[in-house]
Design a protein that fits this description.
Helix 2 packs across helix 4, helix 4 runs antiparallel to helix 13 and helix 12 packs antiparallel against helix 14. The radius of gyration is 26 Å and the shape is elongated. It contains 14 helices and 14 strands. It has 471 residues and is of the alpha+beta class. Bound molecules: adenosine-5'-diphosphate and magnesium ion. GO terms for molecular function: ATP binding; metal ion binding; protein serine/threonine kinase activity.
Length: 471
């Protein structure tokens, strides 16, 4: 997916305010009614409608008028919210090239102020671009598009929590830097996915290291569940780094043995096929029956001394609840391996678009889009929402008397490129209505015609406040 971060530079505070308002509205609405967005954003004089048009033009929002007139965030809009938050937190200052595309994620290089390059993973659950996964579709067919955002956020949170836990226990994983919405920032792995490596000087040593990792993870109570050549990075010194953790489960999971055996089998299969590794004969086998010669060194789940609890503790500490785990488990990890089924040689470049992360260095960032930190912008979600709440209350308490600027809003058509004439018309109408309301010519309550809102103004207000506090 194209991530044109250039647009980011031209988005104003109001743009982000409205984008955030849509995000908040999506907690309760599949499509957020325009009027609700306007009420949350609380821009003066119908400013929301002008901003909505701009956001639509840049494909940060999707317009839907099938049931009522409203909007939802696109992945791009969600990306921008996350990136903006990260920039405001000082995590990075620029977004560079895309270095990877997983089935349900996009990975970009990002750079810190001092030039350090990190990796940014944007989760995109539901994209399923490489293979249709029926059960996933069935699960979410009747659910709102917010579900995709919600699940992507859970995937990111879970991945971040696991990466941190593994790192703390000395596993070779990227350094988990930060997480916001569906975005995880981690250190850049200087290496290649194993799937791209045709030859290894010491395949047996690498094999043992990798199998050792599966066993050691299980000893720590964890199973990767997608452990294969796509999710194992290797550098020129044959150093291994594991990636991709949203589907991990505890060794106490009901299907733990199956997941463990599957991970092990993937590694055996790959090394046998790719590097012609033959596994030790079982010398103890007295008969000459067709016993699989691998069995001797194949780790058995039942024989591993497991210490469970790490997972639950780490997840709880990250704010990841049991329900989150249930939700995400229903969606990923149950029935498919996201990256495997990879025995075909032809698939080896799938999932990777850059030449090599090894070759990337700071010079590559000539084309990097630098993003400015907005000092006065709220640094994270909670404060953002507080800010929205504050201004909403401000607007509620203040008489809307500043009609002198209302006329300025008429220049909006000058933006040109009217890609959605009907929508533009309807937005303009709504804007006019809002301007009139601001001038006091119209009672604001009469504008509630395009969606049903049973509550009065006060119930509405408490709904928003509840939304914001439960965020
Ligand atoms: P998915 O969950 O969609 O499979 P992955 O986490 O496996 O996503 O990442 C997809 C690809 O992006 C990887 O195969 C790898 O090439 C690249 N990648 C992911 N994380 C990093 C990282 N930290 N450093 C360098 N490359 C990475
Ligand atoms: Mg992967």
């Amino acid at each position: 997916m194209k991530l044109d971060v250039d647009v980011l530079r031209y988005l104003s505070k109001d743009d982000f305010r409205v984008l955030t308002a849509v995000e908040m509205g999506m907690r309760n609405h599949e499509i957020v009614p325009s009027e609700l967005i306007d009420r949350i954003a609380c821009l003066k004089h119908g400013g929301t409608y002008k901003v909505l048009k701009n956001l639509l033009k840049h494909k940060l929002l999707h317009h839907d008028s099938s049931k009522y007139d409203g909007f939802r965030l696109t992945y791009l809009g969600y990306d921008f919210l996350a990136i903006k938050t990260m920039v405001n937190r000082g995590i990075f200052t620029g977004v560079g090239r895309q270095i990877g595309v997983g089935k349900e994620s996009d990975i970009f290089e990002v750079a810190k102020e001092d030039g350090t390059v990190l990796a940014m993973k944007l989760h995109r659950l539901g994209r399923v671009s490489f293979r249709a996964v029926k059960s996933k579709r069935d699960y979410l067919r009747h659910r709102s598009s917010y579900s995709w955002l919600y699940l992507s956020r859970l995937a990111a949170l879970k991945e971040f929590a696991f990466m941190k836990a593994l790192e703390e226990h000395g596993f070779p994983v990227p350094n988990a830097v930060d997480c916001n919405r569906h975005c995880v920032i981690m250190s850049l792995v200087r290496g290649y996915p194993l799937v791209q490596v045709k030859q290894l000087p010491n395949p047996d040593v690498v094999f043992e290291t990798i199998i050792g990792l599966v066993v050691r993870m299980a000893e720590h109570g964890l199973i990767h569940c997608d452990f294969n050549e796509f999710n194992i990075m290797i550098d020129d010194d044959e150093k291994i780094t594991m990636i991709d953790f949203p589907q991990m489960v505890s060794v106490s999971h009901r299907n733990a043995k199956m997941y463990f055996d599957r991970d092990v089998e993937c590694i055996f299969k790959f090394f046998r096929k790719r590097y012609n590794l033959s596994f030790e004969e079982n010398e103890d086998e007295s008969d000459d029956s067709e016993v699989d010669s691998e069995e001797v060194c194949r780790p058995r789940f039942s024989e591993i001394k497991k210490v469970s609890g790490l997972l639950d503790k780490k997840l709880a500490a990250s704010g990841f609840t049991g329900k989150d785990q249930e939700d995400i488990e229903r969606f990923i990890g149950e029935d498919v391996q996201k990256d495997s089924d990879s025995d075909g040689e032809g698939t080896e470049d799938e999932g990777y678009i850059a030449d090599s992360t090894n070759e990337s260095n700071i010079k590559d960032f000539g084309s990097m889009c630098s993003l400015r930190k907005e000092e006065d912008n709220p640094p994270d979600r909670e404060i953002e929402h507080e800010a929205v709440e504050d201004t909403c209350m401000e607007r509620d308490d203040k008489p809307e008397d500043d009609s002198s600027q209302a006329g300025c809003e008429h220049d909006s058509e000058a933006d040109g490129q009217i890609e959605y004439p009907e929508l533009t018309k309807s937005l303009s109408k709504q804007r006019q209505r809002a301007i009139q309301a601001a001038r006091g010519r119209r009672k604001s309550s009469t504008s509630r015609t395009t969606y049903s809102d049973k509550g009065g103004r006060s119930s509405y207000k408490s709904k928003i406040q509840k939304q914001m506090s439960s965020w």
